[in-house]
Amino acid sequence: MRLDALKEKTVEEMGEILGTDLQSPALARLHALGLPSKKSEAYRYFDIDRLLAQEYTLLDYVPRSIQESDHIEIVDGTVVSAPKGMRIFYEADKHIDPEHFDPLYYLSHLLSPHVIKIEIDGDAHVEIVHRFTKSNALINYRIALENQSNRHAIVYERFENEAISNSLVLYGYDIKVAPDSTLRVLKTQTFDAQHYAIVASHNIHVERQANALLKSFDFGGGLGLQLIRVLLEEHAHTEMGHLLYLNSDSRRGTISQIVHRGQHSTSSQEAKNILDGHSRGIFDALIKVEHSAKYTKAHQNSKAILLDEKAYMAAKPQLEIYIDELEASHGSTTGQLDEKQLFYLQSRGISAVEARKMLVIAFANTLIEKVKDSRQQERIKEEFERAFYAMQKETA
Q1: Is a pLDDT exceeding 90 seen at residue 263?
Q2: In this predicted structure, what is the pLDDT of residue 133?
Q3: Which residues contact 256 (CB under 8 A, 6 or more apart)?
Q4: Mean pLDDT of the region 378-383
Q5: How many other β-carbons are positioned within 10 Å of the β-carbon of residue 266?
Q6: What pLDDT was estimated at residue 193?
Q7: Residue 326 lies in a domain
Q8: Half-sphere exposure of 242 (CA within 13 A, CB side)
Q9: Residue in 3, 48, 101, 395 with CA at minimum distance from that of residue 251
């Protein structure tokens, strides 16, 4: 299947190609938005046309018996293992946000015969491992995730792949953060250009007096984009942090919308971007404050370091505000490592490569050190070093 076959089609033609109900609200929304292209605002810095024009094999998503393990493992879109007693099941797709900005969010839903439902009990720590094993494939799945009121849960998410190539992963979460609860989601992902490309479209609804803390750590090469819409109700809070280290010819980043709907809702979003080689980093983030969201507090900032003169950062922090009773700020800076600091470190016998790494880590640490789990901190630093030294070998 080539996804660009859906371009400039009627609703009826789209429905026939996808084999879906013509009355589906997701189909109507996909048709209204149109398939993304380089002319689309969210995808203008990402090579989406090339991905949509490639021929992919569609996979059969047949539920398997779930084996017992200490983490949730999803292989090519199917759950294969999970901790004992955890409530994981498949259900009909009923978790669609009618106002998401990403057309591939709706396409992903339309391509999914069912969603993976994960219900988190109590103050749990859950690890989700995504593994991809199919080449030249369209790997598509959706996860509906819910926690419990008055509880504080953590989800650790990481990715593994075998020796695959030329696959496209479309996946994403529809998360409902229950009232008076806290949900932390920590994602770490490192991959190379030849393995797969990934577009992850997430929808997160933060209920009254709930907290959603979302941290992403993306390293290496390849094509990867996460598109996130967060809706905040009264007294709800979200804290988002994105650390990006790119090498080679990669194109990766974050497109987000944080929508303040409830009064006294608060948000904080920080992006740290470190770009090497011919890479392109993307941070296109909108904070929208609706008429109903009086007394909002919203802050957003992006900082980027370019380690190569051919690296490029596309940063676009934005505010869209419809009231006066609020506190809001946003900003963006892009620069290089301080030459005086590099010279000082090398004058103390530290190699140029290690000096660069030390300064880059110091730049990134404000986000890494917010991860309270020391084991996860070490994993993030190891992932970063692996990607960093791979780039040094490539340029040596």
Answers
A1: yes
A2: 95
A3: 227, 228, 229, 230, 240, 269, 284, 285, 286
A4: 90
A5: 18
A6: 66
A7: yes
A8: 27
A9: 48
Is 98 inside a domain boundary?
Answer: yes
Helix (H, G, I), strand (E, B) or coil at 269: strand
**Distance separating alpha carbons of residues 368 and 385, to the nearest angstrom:** 13
Domain coverage including residue 38: 3-336
Tokens at 139, concatenated: 């790997």
Interhelix angle for 352-368 vs 339-347, to 10°?
A: 120
DSSP 123: S
Degrees to nearest 5, angle at CA 276 with 215 and 223: 60
**CB count, 10 Å around CB of 74?**
21
Residue 150 placed within a domain: yes
- For residue 156, give Cα distances in angstroms to 111, 159, 176: 26, 10, 17
pLDDT attached to residue 165: 92
Assigned token pair, 393: 């070998």
Mean per-residue pLDDT over the chain, rounded = 94
Helix (H, G, I), strand (E, B) or coil at 387: helix
Residue with tokens 């980093």: 281
**352-368 helix and 374-395 helix, angle to the nearest 10 degrees:** 150
What is the count of structural domains for the chain?
A: 1
Q: How do residues 25-41 score in pLDDT, each as one tens digit? A: 999 999 999 999 989 98
Q: Is 357 within a domain?
A: no
Q: Can you tell me the distance from the alpha carbon of 53 to that of 61, in angstroms, rounded to the nearest whole number?
A: 23
Query: What is the chain's alpha carbon radius of gyration, rounded to the nearest angstrom?
Result: 21
pTM: predicted TM-score of the whole model, two decimal places = 0.95
Q: What is the DSSP letter of 150?
A: T
pLDDT value at residue 95: 84
Per-residue pLDDT band for 396 (boundaries 50, 70, 90) equals low
Q: What is the 3-state secondary structure (H, E, C) of 39-108?
A: CCHHHCCCCHHHHHCCECEECCCCCCCCEECCCEEEECCEEEEECCCCEEEEECCCCCCCCCCCHHHHHH
Give the number of other Cβ atoms within 10 Å of residue 329's Cβ: 12
**Structure tokens, 170:** 């479309």
Tell me the DSSP string of 183-240. EEEEEEEEE-TTTEEEEEEEEEEE-TT-EEEEEEEEEESSEEEEEEEEEE-TT-EEEE
